[in-house]
Amino acid sequence: MSTPVVNQAWKAMTRAEREQFDEDGFLLIPGALSADEVDYYQAAVDGVYQKASQSGGLAADGSLHLLSAAPNCPELATLLDHPAVFGYVWSMLGWNTHVYHSHIDVHPKLAERKPFWWQWHQDGGRQNREIETDPRPRMSVKLAFWLSDVSRPGRGNLTVVPGSHRTNWLVGPPSRGIEWPQPEGAVQITVNPGDVLFFDRRLWHARSDNYSDVTRKVVFVGYTYRWIAIRDEVADLSERPWWNSLTPVQRQLLGTVGDGTGDHFWGHFPDTTPLYGELAARGLLDPEHPPLIP
Ligand SMILES: O=C(O)CCC(=O)C(=O)O
Q1: Which of 44, 68, 197, 272 is deepest in the core (most CB within 10 A)?
Q2: For the residues 187-200, what does the mean pLDDT come to?
Q3: Does the record carry Oxidoreductase as a key word (predicted)?
Q4: CA 10, CA 246: separation in Å to the nearest integer?
């Protein structure tokens, strides 16, 4: 499978980026993907959209929200460890990491006004109910790869409350269908094709409706520790025809390295965990940062 990803040096998040991420709960990386890459990934997503429209896989409003991005669209596997942005993931989570949840989203212009729905949430599902600390722990981070022009508000922008990742509770309506004002401080993130947003799963965020003429296309990839279960499709991946074209790190990210034992996911075997080896070979393990201690 040919990919336009340009070989680039791996680099760790800088101290300034870490401070900004800690403060805001997100970082925008402009121009992370080249124009050729945007074309390549956009064509792949368009293909998935077309297939879904032929098989009845679209929502009534013509949108697509498809889980398991790479298993459903193998051309996207090179996004999982894309060198322009993967450093943010391992700098934060370390080497014992995999992709637990990913999705392809295509949102064409809405033909009519949608009934109100309170979309605001933190990622992580039941992690938000079952973990008792305040603030909750980070647990996972997400990359959003933007493939269409969302450079103005009103194009289905991701909306966030900067700095809200340390707040367990967002005041909202008694039920999601009841009209309610936007949270104080909410901003629509504006992005160009090829920009990537890196965010803390606890950042309160919501998709907004797209009434513009520009179809919104984006791929979200969520990463967590290997000791947390994967929500994406994992069965039989190694039997797929495209499997052999993946790198060992991509295979790790898709949940299939090791001997299948809990001990491997636990992180007891760095020597057979590809990301550990890649970071060690590049001198990027870091005694100052616990998930990266050699
Ligand atoms: O599609 C969007 O803008 C929102 C995505 C989202 O809510 C999520 O990734 O958890």
Answers
A1: 197
A2: 98
A3: yes
A4: 18
The torsion region of residue 200 among left (phi > 0), alpha (psi -120 to 50) and beta comes to beta
Distance 17 CA to ligand 1 centre (A): 22
Binding pocket residue ranges, ligand 1, CB within 6 Å? 105, 123, 158, 205, 207, 220
Predicted local confidence at residue 2, as pLDDT: 65
- For the range 3-7, what are the long-range contacts, defined as Cβ-Cβ under 8 Å and sequence gap of 24 or more? 3/40, 3/75, 3/78, 4/34, 4/36, 4/37, 4/39, 4/40, 5/37, 5/78, 5/82, 5/83, 6/34, 6/83, 7/83
Question: What does the domain layout of the chain look like in residue ranges?
Answer: 15-236
Q: Percent of the chain having pLDDT more than 90?
A: 95
Distance 206 CA to ligand 1 centre (A): 6
Q: How far apart are CA 178 and CA 72, in angstroms?
A: 35
- Which residue's CA lies nearest to atom 1 of ligand 1? 207
- The CATH number of the structural domain formed by 15-236 is 2.60.120.620
The residue that leads in pLDDT, 6 or 47, is: 47
Ligand 1: residue whose CA is nearest its atom 5 = 207
- How far away, in angstroms, is 220 Cα from ligand 1 center? 8
Atom of ligand 1 nearest to the CA of 142: 9
Q: Is the pLDDT of residue 1 over 60?
A: no
158 alpha carbon – ligand 1 mean position (Å):
7
